[in-house]
């Protein structure tokens, strides 16, 4: 049986050794290399040419997105699975756009970890249930299907969120928006938070720009 070759990139030594021991017990999986995530990550990937790279998303000394982008370009047959405690929605989109094929939360079950590795090695893209059931599902799924640059168009906004986007584009403050829509300021802030997450934006200015570029709002 041809084994799935895996490169493990994790800066926590105890966790790295534990994952390696778990994987090496499987008849169809083999860890061909492991690293703490220093600057040798790309070099090891190029030399070992693994089928799958398990990449810690929180590495302190490695630019994970750059690693994913470079591997996707140079070694398209190598699939990358990001590992993290609870990656932010923006992090997920950034890594998906860079070319990541799957994600494993660090509180995942053994079955989830092994299943994700095997599925990704077969060419299936995998997101953990916690993320696929979030408000950001539309954005992430669209990124997986269509790639970078088209994310906001996949999002379904509520009527209230659309109203708030228009008012932000008119340069109204949270207090003014609250007064116009007969809402509390806290509720307006909550809506704006959801809008930023759904559209993968970072500021009110970006929301306003998005509104001008998408006339349906």
Characteristics of this structure?
Arc Repressor Mutant, subunit A; alpha/beta; elongated; 5-stranded parallel sheet; 217 residues
Overview of the structural elements:
With 217 residues, the chain is an alpha/beta fold. The chain has two domains: 4-146, Rossmann fold (3-Layer(aba) Sandwich), CATH 3.40.50; 157-213, Winged helix-like DNA-binding domain superfamily/Winged helix DNA-binding domain (Arc Repressor Mutant, subunit A, Orthogonal Bundle). The chain is 51% helix and 13% strand. The chain has eleven helices and five strands; from the N terminus they run E-H-E-H-E-H-E-H-E-H-H-H-H-H-H-H. It has helices at residues 13-24, 41-48, 64-74, 89-98, 110-121, 129-132, 137-146, 159-169, 174-181, 185-199, 204-213; strands at residues 4-9, 29-35, 52-56, 79-84, 102-105. Helix 2 (41-48) runs parallel beside helix 3. The protein is elongated, with a radius of gyration of 20 Å. The protein starts with a strand and ends with a helix.
Largest sheet features: 5 strands, parallel
- Assess the beta-strand content as a share of residues: 5-15%
Alpha-beta content class: alpha/beta
What is the molecular shape?
elongated
Q: Please work out how many helical segments DSSP would assign.
A: 11
- Total domain units: 2
SSE topology string? EHEHEHEHEHHHHHHH
What is the β-strand count?
Answer: 5
């Amino acid at each position: 049986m041809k084994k799935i070759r895996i490169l493990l990139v994790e800066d926590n030594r105890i966790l790295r050794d534990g994952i390696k021991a778990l994987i090496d017990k499987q008849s169809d999986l083999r860890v061909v290399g492991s690293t703490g995530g220093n600057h040798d990550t790309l070099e090891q990937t190029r030399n070992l040419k693994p089928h799958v790279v398990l990449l810690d998303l929180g590495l302190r000394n490695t630019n994970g997105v750059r690693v994913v982008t470079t591997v996707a370009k140079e070694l398209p047959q190598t699939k990358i699975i990001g590992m993290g405690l609870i990656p932010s929605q923006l992090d997920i989109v950034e890594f998906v756009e860079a070319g990541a094929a799957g994600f494993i939360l660090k509180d995942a079950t053994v079955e989830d970890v092994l299943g994700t590795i095997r599925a990704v090695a077969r060419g299936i893209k995998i997101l953990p249930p916690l993320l696929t059931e979030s408000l950001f599902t539309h954005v992430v799924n669209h990124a997986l299907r269509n790639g970078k640059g088209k994310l906001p168009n996949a999002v379904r906004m509520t009527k209230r969120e659309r109203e708030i986007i228009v008012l932000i584009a008119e340069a109204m403050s949270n207090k003014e928006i609250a007064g116009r829509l007969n809402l509390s300021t806290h509720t307006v802030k909550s809506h704006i938070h959801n809008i930023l997450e759904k559209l993968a934006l970072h500021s009110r200015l970006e929301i306003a720009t998005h509104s001008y570029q998408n006339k349906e709002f």
